[in-house]
Amino acid sequence: MTDQPPIAAAASRYDEVYADWQRDPLAFWAQAAEAIDWERRWDRVLDDTRPPFYRWFPGARLNIAHNALDRHVDGGRAEQPALIYDSPMSGVQRTLSYRELRDEVARAAGALRALGVERGDRVVLYLPMIPEAVIAMLACARIGAIHSVVFGGFAAPELAARIDDAKPRVIVSASCGLEPGRIVAYKPLLDRAIELSSVKPEHCLIVQRPQQPAELVAGRDIEWLAAVAAAEPADPVMVEATDPLYILYTSGTTGRPKGIVRDTGGYAVALRWSVEAVFGIGPGEVMFTASDVGWVVGHSYIVYAPLLAGATTILYEGKPVGTPDAGAFWRVASEHGAKVLFTAPTAFRAIKREDPDATHVARHALSRFGALFLAGERCDPDTLHWAERALGRPVIDNWWQTETGWPIVSNCLGLGLLPVKAGSPTKAVPGYDVRVLDDDGRETAPDQPGNIVIRLPMPPGTLPTLYHDDEGYRQGYLERFPGHYLSGDAGFRDRDGYLYVMSRIDDVINVAGHRLSTGAMEEVIASHPDVAECAVFGVADALKGQVPLGLAVLKAGVERPAAEITGELVALVRERIGPVASFKTAAIVKRLPKTRSGKILRATMAKLADGEPYTVPATIDDPVILDEIAEALEAARKA
Ligand code: COA
Ligand code: AMP
């Protein structure tokens, strides 16, 4: 894999820029910070007096919504499209210029303020891909409130867990979301989540969608449209660069989601720099990020980065296939003149399955289309090569995480591309010092696998901590290899310094580019009254990369038919975690394979399920159990 011939060899400034950063990181970021409007400049670029905790641009003050909107309105882009909403799901297209978006955001900010939301207050957003999602995020940022967006595919208990942790004063939601073939009623999920949570918001602002309006709770719920129409526009509130802009919850190894904190100043600097250097998007250009505002990719490259650059962003409410066909992305890119498309490899696997010869591409004029970026999961070489052939454009794999907020390893289009090696997202982006360490903390030799870590301090825009949980941040990420941030991913680096990200070192799985915790699913299954113990692990899936599979051992004396119980387990995970978990397969087994110390052998079972070679651990309690598991997996697959 590592010695493939490069497919493109353009002149690149990457080495030079990376060396510039290495020579003087603080000067590098101070220079990048010149692209942002500050009300007050920083006292120092980096506060490193409290390692392993670092703060960027302490003493500086700014407003990120001002930087994303007002400065472009004042700077000659008032009539340029800022946001293009394209929704095959509802048949609506709407373009908001920078002036229109700024004005709507200012009024929405006024509406939040009228409900008592002030700087530092939290606002939870549970919204589908509609303009109000972007407007609400920027409205929070305008008044210094901290938004926390929850992806619409999560069920009420997951939303409740986030409400309990973030303690929002207000929640913004919508009556419904639109999925192919069904309307997802959001409002009952919201009501249920509020019922379940111990913290109750004072008010909910509800966007009523014509497809299915919701009943409002008197005294608590207020219709978004009416509230915004009645509001006085709010001016931007200047905040400290180190103030939190948002909290974004992500899956860890337990059922409890981790609240990733994003600061304001460092994030603005990193995004403004990366959107141009990594993604090659400058002022006036069009970026099409086909993700969801509920994920980090949506926060950074649907909302903040393109707007900070004075570019146009596309908000797409649809799927890569079926809305109406496998040419949907090309139609959108062509109609709105996108220079870059950014999505997850799973979307391309879906397109390839429907349109293996890429016949749809030729039906759309893509003269302005420059490159495809893929992230969110490992990009398998087949998908990469297929996309390259289909598009005849560079296809750029990039590796990062909710925690970092922007790419750690990528080919940098704005700096000139390096040769592509399939299976590798290329090299560390300037700002990141990426290493591969063995379990004893020594750097591995080329091509030798290990833990992928980042040397501290990480660059601006990366998480300063977990929400009100410094200790959790330290224990989860910083203690394993002192002086380094533990990414949770494993892989290797080749002789040319290209990184290969191969797997996770924990129980996190990646389903259709969505990060999920198998631990959380096990907690749900274990709560079923008939289940004595269980294991959930990820198995390979041709479309989604991985899907979860659950095995359960029943309590003694339970005589009900297995199919009835597995059906209940599938329904329970959907009800408690949500459809996004894609938990569709469960089987009942007599016993689970364990080590003599009682550790369940999940990784061995995953290999068994995938038909991969595995070694039976010497510490296994009873090897015969693996044969029983193989039979159960085979039966589950057939069912
Ligand atoms: N609100 C409510 N439900 C949602 C939802 C939302 N915002 N998003 C997804 N769901 C539901 C889906 O309808 C599906 O429900 P089902 O079990 O009833 O079919 C379930 O959650 C699983 O969704 P998903 O894993 O996305 O599968 P899918 O079959 O609907 O679509 C793809 C598969 C590949 C087309 C889709 O995952 C995709 O476009 N992914 C690429 C882009 C992306 O979102 N990347 C994320 C990070 S960059
Ligand atoms: P999330 O925080 O939801 O963005 O998920 C981040 C995780 O997704 C990473 O830690 C990786 O496990 C995986 N991931 C994201 N991008 C890539 C990539 N380009 N290659 C391999 N894995 C990736």
Distance between the termini: 36 Å
Ions and ligands? coenzyme A, adenosine monophosphate
Largest beta sheet: strand ordering = 5-4-17-16-18-19-20-21
Overall average pLDDT: 96
Overall CATH class of the largest domain: Alpha Beta
Number of helical stretches of at least 4 residues: 18
- Gross CATH architecture of the largest domain: 3-Layer(aba) Sandwich
CATH fold assignment of the largest domain: Rossmann fold
Query: How many domains?
Result: 2
Structure description:
This protein has 639 residues and is α/β, with parallel strands linked by helices. It folds into two domains: 14-478, Rossmann fold (3-Layer(aba) Sandwich); 508-638, GMP Synthetase, Chain A, domain 3 (2-Layer Sandwich), CATH 3.30.300. Helices cover 32% and strands 24% of the residues. It is built from 18 helices and 30 strands. It has an eight-stranded mixed beta sheet, with helices on both faces. Helix 1 crosses helix 2 and helix 9 packs across helix 10 (296-308). The protein starts with 13 loop residues before the first helix and ends with a helix. The model is unreliable at 1-9 (pLDDT under 50). It binds coenzyme A and adenosine monophosphate (AMP). Residues 128, 152-153, 177, 179, 184, 290-292, 295, 297, 319-320, 343-344, 346-347, 350, 376, 512-514, 544, 579-580, 582 line the site of coenzyme A.
